[in-house]
Design goal:
Distance between the termini: 67 Å
Oligomer: single chain
Shape: elongated
CATH architecture of one domain: Alpha-Beta Horseshoe
Helix content: under 10%
CATH topology of one domain: Leucine-rich repeat, LRR (right-handed beta-alpha superhelix)
Strand content: 5-15%
CATH class of one domain: Alpha Beta
Radius of gyration: 26 Å
Number of helices: 3
Number of strands: 17
Largest sheet: 17 strands, parallel
């Protein structure tokens, strides 16, 4: 590599980070040590030879079709990502004992025995390694976060003695019963597992975050035991009876989108709620939520089929989001509410826009209609 090429890379460095994307001509990486790079990110670049010097603390090699890692001398690495290198041999990773974060997603791994020496790893991501044997994780006592989505796991007993947060989503037909022994578990994601019985969760009384979405046949009764929950995702679960949530008084975030909910009166006791997602339901009235003084964000996509006056009972809202409140009649109704309740609603924003004003966010189809109403009133 000539001086001009090296200078081009030097100009791309930001805060010690160099990103290389889709470079088909790049082979040797020896030049990296000359550039004072601490974090190196390489994506979609073929024929790379990892002849790096031990100067990096972070290395990301993503979808480069690597076959040999050649990394055992990189003793300073604290973060290593080799995602989407399905033919790679990564046994050399066992030499990198300073690693704290490792991502080996979609590497066609069959086992994790070479990770047993990595006693300092706190965050491990193994998503999309289907059929992987995870029994080799038993010595990784420092693990705090473990991601095993879409791994088609057969046995998770090894997790019983690991004090970790877990993502076990999309592991259909996995027996989750051993999880009940991890009573210290605080964060759990098991979405999309086609669950029917979640009784194993009754003992997980320390859970504060749970994602059980897209399990539309599950009996959710056991949720009533998890009174420490602060964040709960129940979208696409088919829930319609919300009485099982009445004891979850510590909830601050609740996602009930895309279900069969008509009545939210059972939520009146959840006074800590700050964010609620009710998209894709057919709720008749929001008045039951009037007493909640903590609401900040309210999502109501695909259900505003009537005058939404009940929304104005939620007088602490900063954001109301919807994308289907699009008829001229509904727009005029909203304008009427603006006057009657003296709300500081002067514009209707798209979903991605932000404002310091009190916001009602709808789809762009009615921006012009509402603006016209406001202009005619002035």
């Amino acid at each position: 590599m000539n001086i001009e090429d090296i200078n081009n890379f030097r100009n791309q460095i930001e805060n010690g980070e160099l990103k290389i994307n889709k470079n088909k001509n790049l082979q040797s990486l020896k030049f990296v040590s000359e550039l004072n790079v601490r974090k190196l990110v390489i994506r979609n670049s073929l024929n790379i030879i990892l002849d790096l010097e031990d100067t990096l603390t972070e290395l990301h090699i993503i979808n480069c079709k690597l076959k040999q890692a050649n990394i055992k001398h990189l003793k300073s690495l604290e973060l290593l990502e080799l995602r989407q290198n399905t033919n790679i041999k990564i046994d050399e990773i066992s030499f990198l004992t300073n690693l704290k974060t490792v991502d080996l997603s979609d590497c066609a791994l069959l086992h994790v025995d070479y990770l047993q020496e990595l006693v300092n790893v706190q965050v491990l991501t193994l998503n999309d390694n289907r059929g992987i044997d995870i029994s080799g994780l038993q010595n990784m006592k420092q693990l705090k976060e473990l991601y095993l989505a879409d791994c088609c796991l057969k046995d998770i007993h090894v997790l019983e003695n690991l004090p970790i947060e877990e993502d076990l989503s999309r592991n259909v037909r996995l027996n989750l019963d051993p999880i009940k022994h991890i009573v210290s578990l605080k964060i759990l994601s098991i979405w999309g597992n086609q669950l029917k019985d979640i009784s194993f969760m009754k003992s997980l009384v320390n859970l504060v975050e749970l994602d059980i979405s897209r399990n539309d046949k599950a009996d959710l009764t056991a949720l009533s035991q998890l009174s420490n929950l602060k964040s709960l995702n129940l979208c696409f679960t088919g829930i319609y009876d919300l009485s099982i949530l009445r004891k979850l008084v510590n909830l601050t975030y609740l996602d009930l989108s895309s279900n069969n909910i008509f009545d939210v009166s059972e939520l009146d006791c959840l006074q800590q709620l700050e964010q609620i997602n009710l998209e894709g339901n057919k709720i008749i009235s929001f008045k039951a939520l009037e007493s909640n003084q903590n609401f900040q964000e309210f999502y109501i996509h695909e259900q505003l089929e009537r005058t939404p006056e009940d929304i104005m009972y939620l007088n602490r809202l900063s954001i109301v989001k919807s994308s289907s409140f699009s008829s001229k009649t509904a727009c005029n109704q909203l304008f009427h509410i603006r006057k009657q309740y003296k709300q500081n609603i002067t514009k209707i924003f798209n979903l991605t826009e932000k404002s310091s004003l009190r916001q009602v966010q709808f789809s762009e189809q009615i921006v012009a209609l509402f603006s016209s109403c406001v202009n005619n009133d002035q």
